[in-house]
Every structure is written in structure tokens, then in C-alpha cells.
Amino acid sequence: YYFPCQRWLAVEEDDGQIVRELVPVDEAFVKKDTENDGQSLATLGLEQKAKSTTYTVKVKTGDKKNAGTDANVFITLYGSKDDTGTVSLKASKFNKNKFERGKMDEFTVESVDIGDLKKIKIGHDNKGNSTGWFLEWVEIDAPSLGQCLKFPCGRWLDKSEDDGAIERIIFPAELQTTEYIP
Fold this sequence. Notes:
10% of the residues lie in helices and 35% in strands. The protein is mainly β.
């Protein structure tokens, strides 16, 4: 099996991911074609893209006192076929200091096809100075599937607030789900 990457694993490069899920490709894509190297790399990219799905994950921190967190936040997407495993939300497209009060952060998550999105698990590691976090909602857009789902939370992820949980399983709000042509 061949699992080529051809992508950065760095917060400050590419899409900011430091972990990548690699998909196996045919041996022919890996063998160096000296006359047509650029073309085989482009074909390899298309082959990998066909086997994976890119999700845009928007996370809204609530506008309450001490709502932001300095802890490391993670998410797992669960679909009808599989799940993504734990994905660290490291590089926000909008904010260098992420998960701050009243702010929205956007992340890219790539995965093999997990099927229709059924639920998510989101939480943090409770490390840092101010770890408590008030999560308003999570929105996940999957253009290749033609779906945008909203996962309302409106609760604390804090050992000393609410029920003391620092991770939550959240289901999509059907009335806030948008379907469009993939």
C-alpha cells in the first residue's frame, strides 16, 4: 500500500493541519514518471481528493464572562460509515488567538468518506490558565456532500461550571441543516 502525502504538516503552512489522514493509492501513481512528473503529481492529487472529504468547521465561542479558553480543543466527526478520529483544532483561519469570547473560528478538517454526518464530539484537554469554555455552536460545511449542518450547544465545557464535563456529544439541529448541490 502507498500513502503519499505531498502536503505540509505545520500550523503556519498550507491549511494549518499538523495531522493528516492519508488514503492509499495505486502503485502506478507512486512510481516516478521522469518524462511526465508534473502530470503524475496532478493525477495523484485528484486520485487522493476523490477518496477524501474536506469539511469547513466553524466554532462559535459564547459572549459570556470568561467564555474563552486557552486549552487545546479537539473534535471528532461521526458519520454513518465511520468517524474521523480525534482532530486537534490548531490553526484558525480568522484568529491567531482562538476560542476567545464572542469570536468565531474556522478550521479545515480532511477525512476519508465517513458517510452522512450524524453527530460530533467536541472538547478540550483542560490545560492552560483559563480552561473553561462556553461553546455556543459548531457549524460543519461539507461542499462535496452538499450539506451544511449546525450543532447547537449553548453550554459550558468546564470542570467547575454546568455539569463539569469538558467534552460533549452534539447532534445536528435538523431545522438548521442546509442542503445544496454538491
